[in-house]
Amino acid sequence: MLYRICVALLLTWPLSTRAVPLMDLVDIEGIRGNQLIGYGLVVGLDGTGDKNQVKFTSQSVTNMIKQFGINLPPNVDPKLKNVAAVTVTAEIPPSYSPGQSVDVTVASLGDAKSLRGGQLLMTPLHGVDGEIYALAQGAIVVGGLNATGQSGSSVAINSANSGRVPNGATVERLIPSDFSTREEVMLNLRQPSFQTAAKVVEAVNGRFGSGTASALDSTKISIRAPVTSTQRIGFMAMLEGLEVEEGRERPKVVFNSRTGTVVVGQGVRVKAAAVAHGTLTVTISENPQVSQPNAFSGGQTAVVPRSDVAVSQDKNAMFKWPEGASLDSIINTVNSLGATPDDVMSILQALEQAGALNAELIVI
């Protein structure tokens, strides 16, 4: 299994405060995108649609053609191969109005082999409240490829069962927002921090006057804003250009147990500690032996199992990190030992349990 060690050098030590745009730190409550979902049909496939066992596809086609005055006889299966049932999803950005277009993503629901060359029929897109907010239709762009030969051999590049329709949905209804009617604008910090919240309040009050902003907790900041829409938009534009010194965050070490990735952020330091990490290897080999009876003994030939067990342990010397060792020192020491990412995980977890690591360990 291939392992990788990714070291993120985010900042130089010592960590220095740096000013960043306010909108890089916060989200504005009431201004957000909204997800939509719908169920539709893709037609025009070259024999790569859903098979007959996908009953809801044929039922959907039957219900659709009834709207055009065509009634199939009872218990008749149209046996379609060029149609696929799909889910259609989209996200409407904040404040989008009727008539504007958004991209949609189409994904197969049944056992269609490919959606390449298909045409999405008109599909209503619903919000979480069940109301229709957009209509989607158009040609699907598929980035994947799936080819199968008569012998059963096949080749696939990416996924051919999903695609996109650029500007494929038209907004039909404005999603209401209370942003313009609120007396105050609420800012939510993306990374909760009392230091950052205090610095945001200090920067806003320093720019617009005392009492303009107040921190409710480590995440929420309330700001008094103009009531009229034109003045409020101008006020928010000035807020976007305001720069704030970001508070210090606790350094993080992230482990990905599935891929063996270890990401160590700059600012990670250790207290004085001595570490010894060894590897125990157990080897078991099977060498069955054939037992042959003596002549005229009346016995039978038998296979006798024979196992050889060997245990070995690497003798790695104990190494010491000095007080306040930096990220470079940690990585250089670990690399000099030829440690794998599994070893790095074990060492850092042991240091954290011993109280010698000033970082937050995150396992994903």
Descriptive report:
The chain is an alpha+beta fold. The chain folds into three domains: 18-31 and 178-245; 34-171, no CATH class; 252-283 and 312-363, no CATH class. The protein has helices at residues 55-66, 194-208, 229-240, 327-336, 341-353; strands at residues 4-8, 19-21, 26-28, 34-43, 84-92, 101-108, 119-126, 132-139, 145-148, 154-157, 162-171, 184-189, 213-215, 220-224, 243-245, 252-256, 261-265, 273-275, 280-286, 289-291, 302-304, 307-313, 319-321, 360-363. The strands form eight sheets. A six-stranded antiparallel beta barrel has the order 4-5-6-11-8-7. Strands 1-17-16-24 form a four-stranded mixed beta sheet, with helices on one face. The longest helix is centred in the middle third of the chain and has 15 residues, at 194-208. 21% of the residues are buried. The model is unreliable at 1-16 (pLDDT under 50). This is Flagellar P-ring protein.
Number of domains: 3
* Total beta strand runs: 24
Query: What kind of oligomer do you see?
Result: single chain
Helix-strand string: EEEEHEEEEEEEEHEEHEEEEEEEEEHHE
Main location: other
Family: Belongs to the FlgI family.
Function: Assembles around the rod to form the L-ring and probably protects the motor/basal body from shearing forces during rotation.
GO molecular function, one term: structural molecule activity
